[in-house]
Amino acid sequence: MDIAKTIKIPPGRYVLAVSGGVDSMALLDLLVKINQSTALNTRDSGLVTSDTTRAYGLVVAHFDHGIREDSKLDRILVEKLARTHKLPFVYDEGNLSKDASEDKARTARYEFLRKVQKQTNSDGILTAHHLDDVMETATHNILRGTGRKGISSLKSVDGLVRPLLHLPKAHLLNYASNNKLEWREDSTNQDMAYRRNYIRHKFLPRLKELSPEKYMLLQQIIKRHHDLNVAIDNILTTFLHVQPSTSTLRRYDVITLPHSVARELVGEWLRLNGKRQFNRKQLEHTTVAIKTARTSTTLQLDSEHHIKFDQKHAHLKKVLSTKSRVLS
After folding, report:
1. Sign of CA dihedral 14, 20, 23, 26
2. 3-209 architecture in CATH?
3. What angle do CA 288, 294, 300 make, to 5 degrees?
4. Of 231, 238, 235, 221, whose CA–CA distance to 152 is shortest?
5. Where does 243-318 sit in CATH, by number?
6. CB count, 10 Å around CB of 30?
7. Cα separation of 122 and 132, whole Å?
8. Average pLDDT for runs of 10 along the chain of length 328
9. Do the domains spanning 3-209 and 243-318 agree at the CATH topology level?
């Protein structure tokens, strides 16, 4: 199987997240080879320009969470490879404690990646998540009591491109081994205290071993939820297009919709305006507030987002932070 031919990414400039693990090291190697192939084809055609000799402009980005004592070695390996391929390399350190949650680590990592994207004027961010990650994330979120979004949360969206979601990890391991790639294993991935690791190393392999048909059924359920979510989101987006503005929602519409549908509408409205981190309790509280809040009051969502209410409308406002960290 030629994995490179299955990768579908629009040409452009991207921040490539490389942890040093086998998945991201394989993706980096694949994209470098795609660029080399593109350059060769354009030279053969006689149409060589600075814009056509590569499919992708890449900025290699590495985030050191600071959770493991040996994590510096990951950065050294990734930087070495980036220099070998003559690619820009950017990194930052999170200095998180060993007790940091997966959610905290993930939030810090994506904040760094989005900052690099903005500073390099890149078209998007590339990550090396694969089909096994889709299964793990969906199972993890189901156990957490997720809503519809959590079952198909791992996808390409809003400039975040995940081109390997169709490939099982075994394919990437085979590719890395066959191409003699070097990578590092994250020791925390073996810690069964993390639910995701238990799902990855114990639950899903056991399910696949005992009942391959149920494992495939779980894959199909996740795929159906993804397709269903796309359809629902399209309907909600159409509904939001007839609102007074992107940041303004008619309170009457929220009041007259069935409450479960109103909650979905409010959730999509928040995401459309850049407020993506909220749980079911916060979404419920926000929906009720839009229905019942008094005129001229304000609901503070977080340090950057608040909603102001007048008699007919809810206005989502974002206050930009004046502080920003400089990349190392």
Report:
1. positive
2. 3-Layer(aba) Sandwich (3.40)
3. 65
4. 221
5. 3.30.465
6. 20
7. 28
8. 89 96 97 88 50 79 85 94 96 77 83 96 96 94 86 86 95 96 86 85 94 94 92 92 96 95 95 87 96 96 94 89 34
9. no
